[in-house]
Amino acid sequence: MNATEPIRVLHTEWSDGWGGQEIRIVEEMCAVRERGVEVYLACRSHAKIKARAQERGIPVFTLPFRGNADLKTLAGLVRIVRKHGIHIVNTHSGKDTWVGGLAAKIAGAKFIRTRHLSNPINPSRLNFINSLADFVITTGESVRRDMIRNNRIPPEKIASVPTGIDERRFSPECCDRMEIRQNLGIHPEEIAIGIVAVLRAFKRHDLFLDAARILAQQHSHLRFLIVGDGPGRERIQTLIRDKRLEDRVLTLGHVENPEQILRALDLFVLSSDSKEGVPQSVIQALMMGLPVIATDVGSVRDLYNGENFLLVEPRSAESIASAIQTLLSSPRQREALARHARESVQKFTRNGMGAKIFEIYRTLLNRTANHKKGIPS
Q1: Could you read off the pLDDT of 268-322 as tens digits, one per residue?
Q2: 26, 72, 254, 345: which has the fewest C-beta neighbours closer than 10 Å?
């Protein structure tokens, strides 16, 4: 590419859901587009990310993405890279990483692999696709360390870039708290405790509900909110009935404006047992100035400074309930957490994320250009 030519990046995503990973991809694409990068997306025809990207004016290509060795998708990606002069292919899930990474190598583009989850990647040398990447981006520091140690990624070829949140949108001044609570049917005297997450098994909504059952027996003024949608919806509704929490738990499904729900809460909970990078929902809650209780999994500790939220052991409803009880019993501690919350995540902004990603693009492409000219990098 020449100096005046815009950087062109094709993102690939196999997933058909809409959660933190997919939101991150679209927001990242928009953030670097503001810096002059031309962005494209390749996904499956029925994927929810397709419509979300198109709403933001991002060109979308649809391919089958049937598996790691899907030759039709591989050939389609090679054609797209060559036709549109793509400089970088950035893959995101396991299946699209294989076909996307190989397509980049065949077509002469650079290959960036973004790893969103914190669960270990198979270290077998037969699982070589991550090592084949020209650069790896993780969404948390613990994921970066694990991939260096377990997957043989050279430290200079991998960086952690946590998901950035729009601090203007997620602000305590975003909306009228009392009006939203009234619309949700939350009484002024009630304490609202909520979780915002895709309804997937590793988010452990069952632990949140077990903690709610424990606390509901002791307190009559608590309301519990579950915000999100996903494959676990029916199971969660069954759990609510089985635990006789119908009058205490409000399920809202997917919401387009999570900042409004967060504004209505008094406490926020993350109950995951694995896979988290740096969770967007926790950053959002902290930006909203909420007291937060989060399980110590994945890269949650990247957000923790010792005084901005409570960390609890994972896979324990009792630990979650105990931490909630601690904050219920101490308004002063709740206020202290709320005071430190927003300032503690100022480096996790959307603008900062875009700047870091753009610099990775430039460095990677400049290194290639210098190599072709015989200039040492």
Answers
A1: 999 999 989 899 999 999 999 999 999 999 999 999 999 999 999 999 999 999 9
A2: 72
Distance CA 345, CA 156 (A): 26
Q: Which residues of 332-354 are buried (b: 16+ CB within 10 A; e: fewer)?
A: eebeebbebbbebbeebbbebbb
Its pTM stands at 0.84
Confidence of residue 106 (pLDDT cuts 50, 70, 90): very high
* CB 304 within 8 Å of CB 281: no
333: its two tokens? 């501690």
Q: In CATH, which of 3.40.50.2000, 1.10.10.350, 3.40.50.11270, 1.10.10.10 is domain 177-345?
A: 3.40.50.2000
C-alpha–C-alpha distance, residues 14 and 7, integer Å: 23
* pLDDT at residue 375 in the model: 52
Q: How far apart are CA 231 and CA 295, in angstroms?
A: 22
